[in-house]
Amino acid sequence: MTYETEVDLMKSEFLATAAHELRTPMASIFGFSEILLTQEFDEDRRHEFLSIIHKQSKLMASILNELLDLARIEERRGKDFVFQATDVQALVNEVVDGFKLPEGRSAPTLLMPTETLFIMADQKKAQQAIINVLSNAFKYSPEDGEICVTIERAVIDAIGDADTRALSDMVTIRILDHGIGMTPEQLERVFQRFYRADTSGKIPGTGLGMSITKEIINLHHGVIDISSQISYGTVVTLKFPVAQF
C-alpha cells in the first residue's frame, strides 16, 4: 500500500466515523422537533423536548468545532503557531482563573516552584491543551474529588540515551484527579478520535479533546504521558521544551 493510498483510507475511515458520531444527535434533533411540530403538548413536556434538542444541538456544534480545529491543526502543521518564551506559571494561572468550574466544585490546587519557568509555546494553543485535560479531570472525578495541577522542571538524566537527554530539559505540567480512572486497554485508546472511556453517555464530551491535545503537544516538540488506575484516578503530564534565552 502506497503512502497516498494509506492516507486516503485513513481520511475515508475518519469521515465515516465523524458522520456516524454526528448522526446520533442529528436524529434526536430531527425526531423531537418533528414531534413538536405535529403534536400538542403541555408546557412541561414541550420544555423537556426543547431541552433535549438544545442539548443535542450543543453536542453537534462541539463536534463540528473540534473537527474543524483538528483539521486546521493537521493541515497547517503548526505553521500558524506563534512560538515564544512563555511564563508557564502565568499561563497556568490564566487558564485556571478563566476556567468555568462545574457547579459546586472547588478550584484545582496549584503547586508551583518559586523560580519562574519559561517554555517555548504558542500561548493560545498551549492553553487549549491544558484546558482539555483540566476539563476531563473534572468530568471524570466525583464532586468531592480534588484536582491538583503541578508545575516543575524535568529532571535531567545525563546517563540516559540520546532520546532521554533530548526530553530532559523540559517543564512539566501535571494534572492529577481522583476520578474513575482507566484500564490499560482504555489507556491504549485514549488518543483515538471519538474514543470515550465512559460508555454510559452520562458524561458529556465529543471524544476529540485528547486527540487535539496530543496534536498540539507534538507540534510543540513536547510529550504527553498518561497514567491511570481504575477507581484511583488519572495523571496527565504535558511536557514542553524549556525556552532558551
Largest sheet: 5 strands, mixed
Helix/strand order? HHEHEEHEHEHHEE
Helix content: 40-55%
What would the principal axes of the Cα set say about the shape? globular
What is the average of the pLDDT values?
80
Proportion of β residues?
15-25%
Structural write-up:
- The protein has 245 residues and is α+β, with helices and mostly antiparallel strands.
- It contains seven helices and seven strands.
- The protein has helices spanning 3-38, 43-76, 88-98, 123-139, 162-168, 184-189, 209-219; strands spanning 84-87, 109-111, 118-121, 148-153, 170-177, 223-229, 233-241.
- The protein has a five-stranded mixed β-sheet, with helices on one face. Strands 1-3 form a two-stranded antiparallel sheet.
- Strand 6 and strand 7 (233-241) form a beta hairpin.
- Helix 3 crosses helix 4 and helix 4 (123-139) runs antiparallel to helix 7.
- The longest helix has 36 residues, at 3-38.
- The termini are far apart.
- The model is unreliable at 158-167 (pLDDT under 50).
